[in-house]
TrEMBL record:
HAMAP family: TIM_B. Gene3D superfamilies: Aldolase class I. The active site is at residues 94, 164. Pathway: Carbohydrate degradation; glycolysis; D-glyceraldehyde 3-phosphate from glycerone phosphate: step 1/1; Carbohydrate biosynthesis; gluconeogenesis; Carbohydrate metabolism; erythritol degradation. Belongs to the triosephosphate isomerase family. Involved in the gluconeogenesis. Catalyzes stereospecifically the conversion of dihydroxyacetone phosphate (DHAP) to D-glyceraldehyde-3-phosphate (G3P). Its main location: cytoplasm. InterPro entries: Aldolase_TIM, TIM_sf, TrioseP_Isoase_bac/euk, Triosephosphate_isomerase, Triosephosphate_isomerase_AS. It catalyses: D-glyceraldehyde 3-phosphate = dihydroxyacetone phosphate; L-erythrulose 1-phosphate = D-erythrulose 4-phosphate. It comes from the Bacteria. This is Triosephosphate isomerase. One of its GO terms (molecular function) is triose-phosphate isomerase activity.
């Protein structure tokens, strides 16, 4: 049995107080259950209100955390603080953090470890750039990121891997179904080599321009256990269009 799918929405640096109503709309729609788990990662300013609106029907998480538990790190937030506010997960190693903040695999690994120590689920992101894909290095790059970013403490209950090709993020471009299947198969094999049979239960999400219009083609691909959605997660109606792709498959 493949793991229960997860549809996760990464709001990035978007959303003001009024937008929390979208979480309320999602929770209302999820009352009768869904064919997948649902999570939203709003900006931290909205996380407490989002959690209240979610009413336990979807997870609420954060988009980053510090590697340390506390200390003199002005402007940073620790995983322990996120757990203390009742959040369930945290995205680590998103390509925008790797690019904008120079995060390396070793930083991502320490952040994932911090998340695990705090009892949070770490959504660990990997993905190649366009130049790396064109040079035929996509698989090697992603496998390198996976090996160095995922800590030994990873188990299916505390870790989700998100494959997000950088060139597909926010561009409307997606890899072919065969390319997604090949990369996810490669990720699963690498995780199995490292973690044994437990790797079968570790969720592998695809991210990069997932929309209601292409969800039905992407989500059923073997070894795709859900999606990490950016732009199309900001409005409940669009996000539900992706979540419902699972109901229709049932
Ligand atoms: O980066 C992403 C999610 O983390 C994907 O963003 P888009 O869905 O907007 O392409």
């Amino acid at each position: 049995m493949p793991p229960k799918p997860l549809i996760a929405g990464n709001w990035k640096m978007n959303g003001l107080t009024a937008d929390v109503r979208e979480i309320g709309t999602l929770a209302q729609a999820l009352k009768d259950g869904a064919g997948c788990d649902v999570a939203v990662f709003p900006p931290l300013t909205l996380a407490a209100a989002a959690r209240e609106k979610a009413g336990g029907l979807l997870w609420i998480g954060a988009q980053d955390c510090h590697t340390k538990e506390s200390g003199a790190h002005t402007g940073d937030i620790s995983a322990a603080m996120l757990a203390d506010m009742g959040l369930q997960g945290v995205i680590v190693g998103h390509s925008e953090r790797r690019q904008d903040h120079g995060e390396r695999d070793s930083d991502v690994r320490l952040k994932a470890l911090a998340a695990h120590r705090a009892g949070l689920c770490a959504i660990i992101c990997v993905g190649e750039t366009r130049a790396e894909r064109e040079a035929g290095q996509a698989e090697a790059v992603v496998l390198g990121q996976l090996a160095a970013s995922v800590p030994e403490s990873a188990v299916p209950g505390n870790t989700v891997i998100a494959y997000e090709p950088v060139w597909a993020i926010g561009t409307g471009l997606t890899p072919t179904q065969d390319d997604i299947a090949a990369m996810h198969g490669t990720l699963r094999r690498a995780l199995t080599d490292r973690f044994g049979p437990a790797a079968a239960d570790m969720r592998l999400l695809y991210g990069g321009s997932v929309k209601p219009a292409n969800a039905a083609e992407i989500l059923p691909i073997t070894d795709v256990d859900g999606a990490l959605v950016g732009g199309a997660s900001l409005r409940a109606e669009d996000f539900l269009g992706i979540i419902r792709a699972y109901d229709q498959a049932d």
